[in-house]
Automatic annotation (TrEMBL):
One of its GO terms (cellular component) is mitochondrial large ribosomal subunit. GO terms for molecular function: structural constituent of ribosome. This is Large ribosomal subunit protein mL52. The keyword Cell membrane does not apply. Residues 21-47, 80-109 are annotated as: Disordered. Keywords: Mitochondrion, Ribonucleoprotein, Ribosomal protein, Transit peptide. It is found in: Mitochondrion.
Amino acid sequence: FSSTCGVQAGQKWRLEHGLARSGTEYGPMTDLPDWSFEDGRPAPPLKGQIRRRQEKETLARRIVMLNSEVDHGVEAWNKKQEEARRTEEHRKSLLLKPKGKLLMKKSKS
């Protein structure tokens, strides 16, 4: 007697081998057409294939948008760091400079 769910049959093995959780998520059995015409023309895409293609396109567009946002954020952070460095250098340049004996002692060391 087993109390495990039959739906998860083989799920662990597929994940360990780098495959989809189930056999119906992706792969030739879901992505390729079920049939073709005798003269070699492909069959029209099925509703599920069209839906999966649209989901993949939507995901790809979202990935590109998020990637551009990250790039913009990194660029803004770099600019902010550069501005802070310039401000710090300018602040240090405004400090009083050593004069007389202190300047001579500092230049010899």
